[in-house]
């Protein structure tokens, strides 16, 4: 949905570099999520946040950190990128009552 | 932790054939959602099932939620080339409506004209 944007859309970086992926939403949702998608593994949850002061680890949080700067912004950082973090990363938002998740367009990351 | 398994991983059909993907959870779910991701796109919500034994239809798509709320299926009748993409189920753990979603691995559907 255009209401959920991600930057950059594509990124190539080198092993050991720090990189930040950003997500913004205009849907007014409190809940935001970061997923990574790998072939054959589906979507795996990295971190999620139910409001600005709430940050929770997902199933694969090692090597990642997040920041919820505002209701509308949720950033994902790779402190020291490694090749097996090469993946497609999606941000998503949801309204607590509706529970549908709305995904951004994704960021394709390649770590060399 | 909760696991959601989805089969098959790939399905190739001729246009006009039917297609079914199955989803099984290791734990009882409070609800299950289905998403579709077109090639090169992002997942888009299709439907949510909440009740035991629930069946919902959207045109040629039929969604079912098992009696035990541990499995679900998506059936497409008479596939069309517009149906191509990856179909994901996503389960929310039982006992709370505020839990996070656990996605299945997805089924990649290819439709040959």
Task: Outline the secondary-structure elements.
The complex is a heterodimer of chains A (112) and B (113).
Chain A: E1 4-7, E2 10-13, E3 19-25, E4 31-38, E5 42-51, E6 54-57, E7 64-70, E8 73-78, E9 87-94, E10 101-103, E11 107-111
Parallel strand pairs in A: 2-11
Antiparallel strand pairs in A: 1-3, 3-8, 4-5, 4-9, 5-6, 7-8, 9-10, 9-11
Chain B: E1 4-7, E2 10-14, E3 19-25, E4 29-37, E5 43-49, E6 55-58, E7 61-65, E8 71-76, E9 85-93, E10 101-103, E11 107-112
Parallel strand pairs in B: 2-11
Antiparallel strand pairs in B: 1-3, 3-8, 4-5, 4-9, 6-7, 7-8, 9-10, 9-11
Using only C-alpha atoms, the radius of gyration of chain A works out to: 13 Å
Rounded Rg of chain B: 14 Å
Instruction: Please estimate the helix content of chain B.
Output: under 10%
Total count of strands of chain B:
11
Listing every helix as H and every strand as E from the N terminus to the C terminus, the arrangement of chain A reads EEEEEEEEEEE
The averaged pLDDT of chain A comes out at: 94
Describe the protein.
The complex is a heterodimer of chains A (112) and B (113). Chain A starts with a strand and ends with a strand. Chain A is built from no helices and eleven strands. In chain A, strand 7 and strand 8 form a beta hairpin. By secondary structure, chain A is mostly beta strands. Chain B has 113 residues and is mainly β. In chain B, a hairpin with a 7-residue loop joins strand 9 (85-93) and strand 10 (101-103). The mean pLDDT of chain B is 93. Chain A binds chain B through residues 33, 35, 40-45, 48, 50, 56, 58-59, 90, 92, 96, 99-106, and chain B through 1, 6, 9, 31, 33, 35, 41-45, 48, 88, 90, 92, 97-98, 100-106.
